[in-house]
């Protein structure tokens, strides 16, 4: 009889904790189910695969980092997905930029540092452990409760306010936005992807502005997604034409009209801060405030508008 005994690992028991890992998401369908179950039932990223792919499978995703081509990190306990952090990979404000979009950890794990570990790993991929890499990471749409998480990791932060247009009169060329020295504007390739190839929304791209007008329970609303202050003469003519056209439609229909935009500073003459009681979302109309934050590392963008990140998408 052999004197050697083959040792085998004991099978896991209920008391054996599953191994915790953070890694590129393993299964896109599992992630969509997680969003539906734990973020919100019927969320657009769960119910519409086109929108999921549009957000997380852009052509700028590096498949060496995200083998599925899905720019999402998952937090796993064994095979169970217990949290995630997504990013929209875009070619601005640096050629490889991570716009953080959706971040969630199971409530039972809150306080365990899982969310911070997800952010640390995404930050490592984007700008390196020391934050000195050639990429960029940030978001637009952070709430005040999230700011300490970003600030303690070296992110810069600025408040972005909501503006309404009320004064369609001829005016001098609007002043240009103040950009960070390292910031590049969205290239045409990105604008064509973001606005022309959107799977659900239809945008109106004009010479110096991008608009989306909708009719809802509140009235007719024109969302200004981008204003291009680099176009000779500025965006004034485009804004006035759209404002006069769509406000006339609202008048004929006997309903409210609003043109709004988000920006750090007023886009120019004719724009005023939105009143607190004005709805900021419209399905259903609800006033959720007119102040959100943008953060970034190694810098915060100077030109932040409603079309950045995932701020204009169906819910």
Describe the structure.
The protein has 315 residues and is α+β, with helices and mostly antiparallel strands. The chain folds into two domains: 20-134, Aminopeptidase (3-Layer(aba) Sandwich); 158-297, no CATH class. Helices cover 22% and strands 28% of the residues. It contains seven helices and 14 strands. Strands 1, 2, 3, 4, 5, 6, 7, 8, 9, 10, 11 and 14 form a twelve-stranded mixed β-sheet that branches. Strand 2 and strand 3 (80-90) form a beta hairpin. Residues 1-9 have low confidence and may be disordered.
What is the share of helical residues?
A: 10-25%
- Rg over CA atoms, rounded to whole Å, is 23 Å
Coarse shape:
globular
Main β sheet profile = 12 strands, mixed
Order of helices and strands: EHHHEEEHEHEHEEEHEEEEE
The whole-number mean of residue pLDDT values reads: 91
List the helices and strands and how they pair.
Elements: E1 20-24, H1 28-39, H2 44-47, H3 49-56, E2 72-77, E3 80-90, E4 97-105, H4 114-127, E5 136-142, H5 147-151, E6 156-165, H6 188-196, E7 204-205, E8 209-215, E9 219-227, H7 236-253, E10 256-263, E11 271-273, E12 281-282, E13 285-286, E14 291-297
Parallel strand pairs: 4-5, 9-10
Antiparallel strand pairs: 1-2, 2-3, 3-4, 5-14, 6-10, 6-11, 6-14, 7-8, 8-9, 12-13
Overview features:
twelve-stranded mixed β-sheet; 2 domains; alpha+beta; Aminopeptidase; disordered N terminus; 14 strands; two-stranded antiparallel ribbon; 315 residues
Summarize the structure.
With 315 residues, the protein is α+β, with helices and mostly antiparallel strands. It folds into 2 domains: 20-134, Gcn5-related N-acetyltransferase (GNAT) (Aminopeptidase, 3-Layer(aba) Sandwich), CATH 3.40.630.30; 158-297, no CATH class. Helix content is 22%, strand content 28%.
